[in-house]
Design goal:
The structure holds two protein chains of two kinds. By secondary structure, chain A is of the alpha/beta class. Chain A contains 15 helices and eleven strands. In chain A, a hairpin with a 5-residue loop joins strand 10 and strand 11. In chain A, helix 5 runs parallel beside helix 6 and helix 7 packs antiparallel against helix 15. By secondary structure, chain B is mainly alpha-helical. Chain B has a domain of about 35 residues: Histone, subunit A, CATH 1.10.20. Helix content of chain B is about 35%, strand content about 5%. A two-stranded antiparallel ribbon of chain B has the order 1-2. The longest helix of chain B is centred in the N-terminal third of the chain and has 18 residues. The chains are: A alpha/beta, B mainly alpha. At the A-B interface, helix 9, helix 10, helix 11, helix 12 and helix 13 of A face helix 1 and helix 2 of B.
Amino acid sequence: MELHSLGIAELRRMLDKGEITAKDVVSSVCSRIDAVEEKIKAYVTITREEAFAMAEEADRERAGGVKKALSGIPLAIKDNMCTRGVPTTCSSKILKNFVPPYESTVTAKLKERGYVLSGKTNLDEFAMGSSTENSGFHTTNNPWDTERIPGGSSGGSAAAVAADECIAALGSDTGGSIRQPAALCGVVGMKPTYGRVSRYGLVAFASSLDQIGPITKNVTDCAILLNAISGRDLRDCTSAPVEVPDFTAAIGKEIKGMKIGVPKEYFIEGLDPAVERAVREAIGKLESLGATAVDVSLPHTGYAVATYYVLATSEASSNLARYDGVKYGFRAEGKDLVDTYMKTRAAGFGPEVKRRIMLGTYALSSGYYDAYYKKAQQVRTLIKDDFEKAFREVDVIVTPTSPTAAFRRGEKTDDPLQMYLADIFTISVNLAGVPGISVPCGFTAEGLPVGLQLIGRHFDEETLLTAAFAYEQSTDWHARKPAL
Amino acid sequence: MKISIDHIASLARLSVSEEEKSLFGAQLESILSYMDKLNELDTSAVDPTSHVLEISNVTREDVTAQSLDREDALANAPDKTEKFYRVPKIIE
């Protein structure tokens, strides 16, 4: 077994026993990148030099008796999280040469725990998209079928984990951007509760929805990474002042007596029969482990996509006003200052980002605010209430993560609305602020992975991890690897 | 409903080509008509949610702390002069 194919927990055991060094792990990951990156194109920047320097430091510390949770573990970071001294582009031409002068809180926490940065991964420009085809640089390919997309927007992170080009990764999730690519690439991805993880240093897309989370090869690694990145941060006033438990303690608990809700609104027309079959079988598996499945209703599910695209684009139009070619990033010369702004933004942003800025600007413009923005905020309340009611009856809610397996490149690029509907099962979770995890639950006839989504109560990631781990251990989906 | 793409683009400080105008115009019309489905719901008695967490007025102690060095803050500027960002002349 090659080291690059292992997870965090296994590598840590071997490192602790002194069977291998951090340098061995980094060498293995780098040679894997050399072998497959040309086919996958998961990364925007590969930080080989930094990786070897960080591994050396990890080995030195270990020799000195210092034990850190992620010492010597190569992790890939989505390229919308600031890494001091390492370019952070958001896969946008407007930030192509941006080198952050500060470190995001999540990567600072990973540094404290001794991680190794393998590189920065590709995304849909500013995390706006569901296929990574909106990257301003290149498209990432799905390791299970390189003619297909890896999902998005954290497609680079999910593909890198699935292709063993890193040990695990961080993604960000505004409407499904961790869970959907994790599902389509056959790996584990979690969006924690809104406020669980600091957003300081995460380039803002839609601030009331964005959340950083782990993308990993198994559920145990998800708990390990969540331990590392969670917690209140004075630099993010929306990070919540709540206790952070040891999430790994949730691993291995029984699910006997757990009540799992199956919402009928998620088993609808447009759901691929192969996905439905895999998800129904997974629900049967959870029942055979002692859980009880009950029908629940989330009646406003059908309004989630419309609500999301009003709110997310409105917030984005405001957040992206800062890219004006003055303080950082690309600048196009204009005849005066306003003309400079207009030309800079026209040349720096790609089509999907422009479309969303325009949509959000329209929704917030004088005369339309109440009809769109306020209306969507009110429907958001209804969607949030749906979950609160359901969670009075059940402990977790189980759904498909995505209505289909990975689609082909170019299949949905001409129709933005069709692309938006790819997020139909993940978006409500962000609107309600609750946590969600996607775990592999089978394959289609074409050999493409299918994801099972588990949704939990606010700040109850532990129950999700318990259920997800119990399910994972009763199957071998997570152990399968793409042939590359 | 007819969207004035010129007006929206000007509010967004985004110059758009003729081609983009017709493409975005059609796409935005189609997306906005999909969003009209929100009007099926009576929300007259529903409070808006701007944020899912019940946190308000987060403050910190009023003490000085380390902040970004000027040089670091200027390092990414497309144009600068000693201590300042430089932009095209704005006063005639």
